[in-house]
Amino acid sequence: MTATETPAAQTPATDSPARETLTSPAGNPLGFGRMLRKEDVRFVRGQGHYVDDLVLPGMLHGAILRSSYAHARIVSIDTSAAEAHPKVKAVITGKILETLKLAWMPSLSGDVVAVLATDKVRFQGQEVAFVIAEDEYSARDALELIEVEYEPLPAVVDARRALDSDAPVIRDDLEGRTDNHIYDWEAGDAAACDEVFANAPVVVAQDIIYPRVHPAPMETCGTVAHMDKVTGKLTVWTTTQAPHAHRTVYALVAGLPEHKIQVISPDIGGGFGNKVGIYPGYVLAIVGSIVTGVPVKWMEDRSENLMSTSFARDYHMHGEIASTRDGKILGLRVNVLADHGAFNGVAQPTKFPAGFFHVFTGSYDYPAAHCKVTAVYTNKALGGVAYACSFRITEAVYLVERMVDCLAFELGMDPAALRMKNLLRPEQFPYTSPTGWEYDSGEYPRALAEAMRIAGYDELRAEQSRRREDAKKPGADPAALLMGVGVSFFTEAVGAGPRKHMDILGLGMADGCELRLHPTGKAQLRLSVQTQGQGHETTFAQIVSHVIGIPPEDIEVIHGDTDNTPFGLGTYGSRSTPVSGAAAAVAAQRIKEKARVIAAAALECSVDDLEWEHGRWFVKGDPSQGKTIAEIAMAAHSSLELPEGVEGHLDASVVYNPPNLTYPFGAYICVVDVDPQTGAVKVRRFIAVDDCGPRINPMIVEGQVHGGLADGVGMALMEVIAFDSDGNNLGGSFMDYLLPTSMECPSWELGETVTPSPHHPIGVKGVGESATVGSPPAVVNAVLDALQIRAADMPFTPAATWRALQGRPLRPDLAIE
Amino acid sequence: MQVPAPFTYERAGSVDEALSLLGRYGPEARLVAGGHSLIPMMKLRLARPEALIDINGLAELDYIRVDGDHLAIGALTRHASVLDSPVLREHYRIFAEAERVIADPLVRNRGTVGGSLCQADPSEDLSAVFAALRGEVVVRSASGTRRVALREFHVGPYETAVGDGEILVEVRVPIRTSVGSAYEKVERRAGDWSIAAVGAFVVLDGDVISDVGIGITAVGAEHFTCQAAEELLLGSSVQDALVETAAATCAAACNPSVDQRGPEDYKRHLVSVLASRALHRSISAARGEVA
Question: What CA–CA distance (Å, rounded) separates A632 from A648?
Fold first, then answer.
């Protein structure tokens, strides 16, 4: 792959990066720059069209009966009363699915998942029966008419007890299974690491929990399925981040002919990883349509979304960091106990059972690293999806950024200074990490220095010292707020990925793109990736505009419909811009080169005589002799005689196989004030310096960062799904699973540096998950800095903060006792 | 979509009509005003009324006024009106301080004073406010009206003295002079229910506490108050140590349940902190000091 565009030149951190200044007739930038999102015209008018908006003639409605137990044997299911409901058309149970060989479906990680429970229920909220009725109300009413007799079993709730010899075996459906162990996996050099640790002057060990959280998109998951009995075509409107992958999976699993399956992902109200996988409800809607012969809609409610769809995180980590006495880090190792729930349904590339967790060495320069991950089954919902986590990089960054702070605490060093001392230096790039990742580009010290400059870091530390001195004086106010400053530095690895290394269910992670110029110079760009709010319809138009100079408003971005877009693996893991964005750029570059040939024919000159500027090929030395892309598009479709071997029209089709991941990075600083008496935490300031390479639309980037920072505040301060000792889900509604509001968020202070990716055609890196990855440790480090204690686990609710201050921290994953 | 079990819907145009509808549908009928507690419970099918009688049209119950030596608040008064009321603000700052942290603007625009009290959630902020102020409620039935002291109003979680065929129509609070009041609440997030909250008013006669009220919510305080702490303070001159003792009395007297908002030791501790702060700020306000 040869890039014909030169990435934007690197610029000093304090300057704004080079921007294209030309504007379109509509006032939009021709290429990169701020412009309002094209899709917002419909969203702000309430004219978005989501799965639940779809109404088809004769459509029926499905509802799922769910288990109230976390672990129980099903003795019997009596559906007769539900079937007798006058508006019920069908009731489907696991027994019926067994006859269709559809009671179980493959997970994304080599396991099987129950579509409807047949033998046992394995988590509270698991799917037990499916009612299809004339309307949604009747379907829900009929759920109450189904009688299920359960024989309750003891539940495995605490992941740390899952491997106990007396723990109940959750997956006795699997042949020969006698325990709850899923896998052991490791990366790095254990022996070399042991040697470094044995000789290190300083070693700090710490247990760290990244508790179970949920993506909680605004729109819950759902599907409308329509099997047309006459044509044999199955159309599935569904909430998916990966429509093409879903189509292929349906074909493989159900034996349906793939050319007769159309998956349509209309407007999607947020994904965050929640909509990568295939849920039982999707399959049940399809089965329901096949059984009834009419369209069937299934749309889950909020509690169903929180209780049964894929969670994220749930990593119990034991980290150890080694250093010299003056703070030069020598090594990092970690043992992880991963709670995968009742089925191993983790969504990540096949060869990476713990995702990209082994990028945990982070942004620092040291040779010794090793990690071991042990995954276990528990009686909880399945998952381990990317909740804006880039395949477990959230956990990895949290681990290293907490461990660095623990080290700073023990050494009595300033955490920013400790980081600055150990950050990778620019001359080390491209850098191969101890666990084998090749970081493409980075200027880390510059980003940290910029964050410290914006924060006024030294003044903040001076204020903190003053306050701490005041608090020691006689008569000091015991309610005086404790000020904390937290630092984090993250490196992301996004844009999965090179197909020789990365696949999901055997499907390589390359993405297609088609760019078609119409005779009048307007364009259609067809993408394999699917926006869920990221602004693809704008950003991708700007990429094409950047390369061929036509206005972004003249480029229609088409996505989310497998019949009308090329194959690709979808949007998650911040991969759209690194992969599909590259595909779009390359397609545009091919159009530009073909346009040159056609322009030469039209101008009756050699291609070598032509120069390019601002969307126009012109004759060197005679700028008046030239053709715009629009003129060339017309010529390409006209009777103009083209050179031998050159086809007409102006289209390009590309499949982009990324040569490497891209490595965006950033430096975050959080300032908090903690009420020592109530434990209430207030985020006073948050400074985020992100480097994602050149910014295609800075406004969209900033919006992504804002959202991710709010996510981070949520996870650090309130978001958690805990379970009681019976396995009851304690986060099953938005009364219990708390998302942050504007009241908890400060006015974000953003900065940027620009370090282009050397291997991406336009140098960009992806930013969708950066802030979610980078911000939780900054907030947590700030809270702990305020409390002047080394460690405690998030979320720092008032109770958790107060108990941490008392030296009796709470376990976030279990019910409070 | 979470959907309620089937129910009948009626709309009342007057209190009399609402009473007659209550008579017609019997004890399985529920009044609905703002609906921000009842309807979510119905959608979860935790509440399954056979009939809903919508009283949102009863403009006659939407008022805040001075009625002699009392403040009178109509049952259909929205939280937002309480928050913004100059009359209430003039007499008791506790109203605005509590309302500012009740739920969010969307809920405050719909939720009502009467609905909040009758829902009788053990974490209801207004229950603590009116318990602190020693308010009383006016309850109407077909046979007439009766008054119930707020401290006798709650008979259990989600249970009140309002009987079948009755409607709470008004809440009344005595007007006091030389009074200061305050509300202190800690929540996990804006809009969440309290982990604990304490409201107070103090009337000063010189340096002597001549009247005092304490309201406590979300921690199982009997009648949303702590009479022992009030008695400790009443008639005493203001001393920091006494306030701390009263706050500790509140903490000891409450009966917090353990849940994801916090363990028992934290909740008790929080009650003492918030009681102390509410009392101190009430005293300062009674002295005319700017908070």
Answer: 11
User: What 3-state class would DSSP assign to B226?
Assistant: coil
What is the C-alpha to C-alpha distance for residues A105 and A115, in angstroms, rounded to an integer?
7
> What pLDDT does A18 receive?
44
* Complex confidence, ipTM: 0.97
Omega into A795 within 30° of 0, i.e. cis? yes
Candidates A301, A717, A798; nearest CB to B2? A301
- Nearest-10 crossing angle of helices A444-455, A415-422: 160
How far apart CA B73 and CA B172 sit, in angstroms, is 6
Among A82, A211, A97, which residue's Cα sits nearest to residue A148?
A82
* Whole-angstrom Cα Rg for chain B: 19
A702 Cβ contact list (under 8 Å, min separation 6): A750
Give the predicted TM-score (pTM) of the model. Answer: 0.96
Beta-strand pair A555-558/A523-527:
parallel
Chain B nearest-CA distance from A42, in A, is 24
- The full set of domains in chain B, from first to last, is 8-54 (3.30.43.10), 59-174 (3.30.465.10), 179-285 (3.30.390.50)
CB-based contact A810 B259, cutoff 8 Å = no
**Strand arrangement, sheet containing A72-78:** A120-121, A72-78, A147-152
| Per-residue pLDDT at A12 exceeds 90 | no
Q: Determine what percent of chain A is predicted with pLDDT higher than 90.
A: 92
What three-state secondary structure class fits A53? helix
CA torsion A319→A797→A377→A92, rounded to 10°? -150
Q: Do B260 and A736 touch (CB under 8 A)?
A: yes
Residue showing tokens 């914006």? A454
Closest alpha carbon to B126 in B53, B193, B226? B193
| Residues contacting A755, CB < 8 A, separation 6+ | A10, A441, A442, A443, A665, A691, A693
Q: Looking at residue B291, what is its pLDDT?
A: 57
pLDDT tens for B195-210 read 999 999 999 999 999 9
Digit-coded pLDDT (tens) for A224-243? 999 999 999 999 999 999 99
Instruction: State whether residue B224 is helix, strand or coil.
Output: helix
A15 pLDDT more than 70: no
CA distances from A275 to A385, A556, B80, B96, B129 (A): 9, 25, 38, 43, 45
* Under 8 Å between Cβ of A434 and A359: no
Query: How far apart are alpha carbons A630 and A554 in whole angstroms?
Result: 11
Residue B108 to residue A280: CA distance in whole angstroms: 38
Q: What is the Cα–Cα distance from A3 to A583, expressed in whole angstroms?
A: 11
| Residue A778 near residue A762, CB atoms below 8 Å | no
Q: Is B75 helix (H, G, I), strand (E, B) or coil?
A: coil
DSSP track, A747-791: --EEEE-----SSSTT-----TTHHHHHHHHHHHHHHHHHHT-S-
Answer whether A717's CB lies under 8 Å from A794's CB.
Answer: yes
pLDDT at A16: 41
Q: Is it the case that residue A14 has pLDDT exceeding 80?
A: no
**Number of C-beta neighbours around residue A779 at 10 A:** 29
Chain A contact set for B270 (CB, 8 A): 678, 798, 802
CB–CB of A407/A204 below 8 Å? yes
Q: Tell whether A810 lies on the interface with B, counting CB pairs under 8 A.
A: yes
pLDDT digits (tens, 9 = 90+) for B39-72: 999 999 999 999 999 999 999 999 999 999 999 9
Strands (E), chain B: 8-11, 29-32, 51-54, 64-67, 70-74, 136-141, 144-149, 154-156, 159-160, 166-174, 179-187, 194-205, 208-217
Of A141, A680, A803, Cβ closest to residue B186: A680
List Cβ neighbours of A770 (8 Å cut-off, separation of 6 or more): A490, A492, A574, A664, A665, A666, A690, A692, A704, A705, A708
From the list A303, A730, A741, the residue facing B191 with the nearest CB is A741
